[in-house]
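#lab-general

N.A. 3:47 PM
ok so I finally got the sequence cleaned up, no stray characters, all 414 residues accounted for. can someone with queue access submit it? mine expired

B.Y. 3:52 PM
send it over

N.A. 3:53 PM
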Amino acid sequence: MAYKYLLDLALILLCTKFLGLFSQRFRMPQVVGSLVAGLILGPAVLGIIQETEFLKTTASLGVIVLMFTSGMETDINELKRSGKASFLIALAGVLIPLAGGFLVGLYFNNPALLVNNTAGPDGSLMLQNIFLGIILTATSVSITVETLREMGKLRGPVGSAILGAAIIDDVLGIIALTIVTSFADTSVNVVWVLVKIVLFFAFAVAAGLAFARLYRRWTCKTEENRTQHVIVAFVFCLLLSYIAESVFGVTDITGAFMAGLVLSNSTSEQRTAYLATNFESISFLYLSPVFFASIGLQVELNRMNTHILVFAVVLTLVAVLSKMVGCGLGAKICKYSGRESLQIGVGMVSRGEVALIVATKGAELGLINTELFGPVVVVVVVTTIITPILLKLVFREKRHAGHPAPDLTQGEEV
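B.Y. 4:20 PM
back already:
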């Protein structure tokens, strides 16, 4: 049994690729098939594979590499131009889902309708409702990034706005989470958390400038051995990810994205393309399939009554619409076109592993009723699966009269 992880990996890689190609037949991104593969293999359907610590670690590494390569492929000038817009998009994309989740909690998180009520007489029921809104503020941009890359839409104003908004969304989410958890955990210091967030970005800029200068000089002297460039770049990514999470309390994927941005602006386009190609290869062959499948493996729902099932449906609808409306409205205020605003709103819908991490933290502090955890998992899975599908629809090119629709499957990597 010690070697069962080899069988697990073989099944995950085979099923994600097979279902990825199958989804591509229906002109959907391959990532949809990968997500469904994890759902089928996991406890929710067949129960062939259980989530293990090894798969969790591999999945975490997969999303780090994914965001690292996204940083390398991001046009920093476009990102700067969309900075103000990204902030407004992220702000609206936090406030509206927060309000939506809170209102849903007011109705469904009712002690009279739940078997196990964990709220005490000290007003913690109100904190639970607020926390439910905070879960909906989370955004997992990794699914969007992979989908946009597959469609060739990652670079450009919409892709940059989504990436920028996702990073800011992370920061705002950390602030909101810290404020609420500070009421349940007196050891949390809100001011200190805010200071650490500011310090992280200051550190990332300073460390990035220093690394960029050294890396540029070193690569010029070792042009004949590019393999070393890849190793050093990956070490920088891992170190910045580790420092972000363990020292400053910022998500590791934010550190990875910042590392990619640094590298994209510290070397030539040709060398950056070489680095990105190498990381995309290992990501495509191994890390990404495990990451996307791991989301489906986490689905293990307990028996739910009618009240909880209705709650799951309503919470999912609010989760999707609140992000689309919030982020789309923010984009519209920033003078994006109606089509672009819709694309940005859809790009921010996925909750992914971020919402699960937030929900788990809340469960540890008693901020979410145990009966309501299952519907949160439903929200994560549904938003993760439908995001690439909706992105494909909103990015579809308009058909012109007299011209056949283009074959979208041509030229895609198989």
